[in-house]
Specification:
Strands 2-1-3-4-5-9 form a six-stranded parallel beta sheet, sandwiched between helices. It has a two-stranded parallel sheet with strand order 6-8. It is 37% helix and 16% strand. By secondary structure, it is an alpha/beta fold. The protein is built from eight helices and ten strands. The chain folds into two domains: 2-150 and 185-205, Rossmann fold (3-Layer(aba) Sandwich), CATH 3.40.50; 160-179 and 213-254, no CATH class.
Length: 261
């Protein structure tokens, strides 16, 4: 039986992973650990084979005033937890990083293993720095597995996609412009994490859906599923194409950004 500690109690991804593994009670023993405050430091990590670190700050507006908090939580805490896991004899440390380490909102070329990282947000910078620090801890008995997923979505998921759905429900109009974005459902992500754990994987991984997402298509599918009447038009497409790369919100919604298949 694999004993897994999820550091970041109540997180969307961590809790989804725990619930998924509950289907296999004879194979996995899973616990979520609250990382708020200092109580986690007293927890005995030696009883686990794997630590899956999902605690972090995301989906809040970045300001100069919260820069230090990003690094404290998304970098310094990660290193502290990894060190504690290593000292306790944990065999594998799985870290939830992000596609944001590349610093791209759109790109005509796919991201590959050879693509350079140039993060331009506190979130992306803190994640990349955490990656480098924990990689330095790795040795044969302590495997470090880093995940750089694109946008994760699913029922009740936080993030931009559900905000977009909410906006469309209000305005009932949406452009038909087609794009390609790497993304991953939370259902597929937890299956991939299970595989990395089963294989005791090490290195950097890029989990994504088998097919790229088109914003127009996924909005249309969601609205039809809910029975929401929406007018789909090409009228705004020329303006949107002009604004991609110039306006952040437009770029995130309609620009291309994919991992290589």
């Amino acid at each position: 039986m694999k004993r897994i500690l999820i550091t970041g109690k109540g997180s969307y991804i961590g809790t989804s992973f725990r619930k998924y593994l509950e289907k296999y009670p004879q194979e996995y023993q899973v616990r979520e650990l609250d990382m708020m405050g200092e109580g986690w430091r007293e927890h005995d990590f030696s009883q686990y084979d794997v630590v899956y670190h999902v605690a972090g700050i995301a989906h809040i507006k970045e300001k100069k005033e919260n820069e230090a908090l990003y690094y404290k939580v998304n970098r310094d805490l990660v290193l502290e937890v990894a060190k504690k896991a290593k000292e306790a004899g944990v065999k594998q440390f799985v870290f939830m990083s992000s596609m944001s380490v590349y610093g791209l909102n759109h790109s005509k070329l796919p991201i590959t293993r050879e693509s350079e990282c140039h993060p331009n947000t506190y979130y992306g910078k803190s994640k990349l720095e955490a990656e480098k620090l924990i990689q330095n801890l790795e040795y044969s008995e302590f495997k470090v597995c880093i995940l750089r997923p694109p946008m994760v979505y699913g029922k009740d998921a936080p993030g931009n996609l559900n905000k977009l759905f909410k906006a469309v429900r209000s305005v009932h109009v949406f452009p038909t412009i087609r794009n390609k974005r790497s993304s991953i459902t939370v259902e597929k992500l937890v299956k991939e994490v299970k595989r990395y754990v089963d294989e005791e994987a090490r290195g950097i991984y890029y989990p994504q859906n088998d097919e790229y997402m088109c914003t127009y298509e996924i909005v249309k599918e969601k609205m039809e599923e809910e029975g929401v009447c929406v007018v789909y038009t090409s009228f705004f497409n020329p303006l949107i194409r002009l604004l991609i790369g110039r306006v952040g919100l437009i770029t995130k919604c309609f620009g291309d950004l994919v991992y290589e298949k």
